[in-house]
Each structure stands twice: as C-alpha cells, then as structure tokens.
Amino acid sequence: MYSRFLKQLSEEQHLSLLVVTHDKNYVNKTNRIIEMEDGRTMCL
C-alpha cells in the first residue's frame, strides 16, 4: 500500500525518497539499494 503511494508520489513530483527498511519484500520493489554497515555505505 505505502510502496505504491510513495512510488507514484516520487514519479509525479520528481522526488527522490530515502526509505530505511529490513523488509526484503519492500527492498525488491525499489530501483536502487544502498547497504549500510556500522554507519557506512557498503554498496552504491
């Protein structure tokens, strides 16, 4: 529910959104994943 709303909002308003989650189902719906470990980015 929220993922569709956020995706639509992002596309219509040309916004970038940062979502922090451990939910792998939600992660699979994104177009970019940045992993963090101990406060540092691991993958860009």
UniProtKB/TrEMBL annotation:
InterPro entries per the UniProt record, alphabetical: P-loop_NTPase (IPR027417)
Name of the molecule in the record: ABC transporter ATP-binding protein
Annotated source species: Salegentibacter chungangensis
